[in-house]
Write a structure and sequence with these properties.
Strand content: under 5%
CATH architecture of the largest domain: Orthogonal Bundle
Number of strands: 0
Number of helices: 6
Number of domains: 2
CATH class of the largest domain: Mainly Alpha
CATH topology of the largest domain: Arc Repressor Mutant, subunit A
Structural class: mainly alpha
Distance between the termini: 38 Å
Oligomer: single chain
């Protein structure tokens, strides 16, 4: 649940935008910078504050790769998979990173540092 000071922050963000839908990205971004993931409960609460349906908020969160619905580690690695990146060889990066990091795709290290910090 959003604390009163967090609700105030979202109200502050609302003042900067003429359209309520435009507030959603900055509000989600602000929450993302405070927490590791955006829970379903938080999406519903932000949607209620902005008077936007849950489906709209969920659609935005799942569309943008910068938002995660579950917590991720301190260092989050993503690989570009659009056509121009694939033409430049980005499809080889996941296999190489699995070797270097000793982690499968989607895994989070349980230690404070990764194997590269030892």
């Amino acid at each position: 649940m959003l604390k009163e000071e967090n609700r105030a922050k979202i109200e502050e963000i609302k003042k900067k935008y003429p359209d309520i839908k435009a507030v959603l990205l900055p509000a989600l971004w602000w929450h993302r910078n405070r927490k590791a993931g955006i829970s379903e409960e938080m999406m519903k609460e932000i949607g209620t504050l902005l008077e936007l349906p849950f489906g709209h908020v969920l659609g935005v969160v799942t569309f943008y790769t910068m938002f995660n619905v579950k917590p991720v580690g301190t260092f989050h690695i993503e690989v570009c998979t659009n056509a121009s990146c694939l033409l430049r060889g980005s499809d080889k990066i996941p296999a190489e990173s699995r070797i270097c990091l000793r982690r499968e795709s989607g895994q989070t290290s349980t230690d404070a540092n990764g194997p590269w910090m030892k």
